[in-house]
Amino acid sequence: MSYAVYHSEKGAISSGGIGKHIDREKGAEHTYRHADPERLHLNENILVNEHCSKALHKAISDRIEQGYNSRNKAGELKAIRKDAVKYTTHIFSGSHEQMKKIEADPKLRKAWIDKNLEFAKKEFGEKNIVRFSIHRDEKTMHIHAITIPLTQDGRLSAKEVLGGRKEMSERQDRYATAMKEFGLERGERATGIKHENARDYYARIEKAQNSINESDFKA
């Protein structure tokens, strides 16, 4: 049995560090030590909008400046709290063996990528996607997405956009439904949403990779 894999977290670390990992920046190889240098050219950054071609920290700040519109009763723009969650991270993948089959077939691979992008747009808004990168240089193909948690009325609220355990579980249900055509099913219902530091972020990526490769990760 093959499972759909979807992780989502509130960003609470330097976006520069995550950007180095996702964008495979030279000089920051320690952030992607499991990547195969000979397969780096297979990676792809989808330009969903104008922000996706910018350095991640600038993409985040520019999108917030563009879309933030939270105002007080006097109609004045509210200052953004220093501890506000400014971005959220997402990892999309699946059980190793099935993902290898998907990756090996160009048409199927493109369809899988397109379906994931469609899912991300529906869930978080096309304008709020500031990174959508396909990684094929590690053991299992996966997608990294970075989104800005802006509500429809222009507030910055990861709590509202991501929701709690119930909402996350329902989102994983929707993701699994979208992945059925690729032979990926819904796994056990678990997980919550939390803040994480840099060490946690990279550990989560490594854990996800190991779990996928063992073909026993539950979405």
From TrEMBL:
Organism of derivation: Chryseobacterium piscium
Matching InterPro entries: Mob_Pre (IPR001668)
GO MF, one annotated term: DNA binding
GO biological process terms on file: DNA recombination
Name of the molecule in the record: Mobilization protein
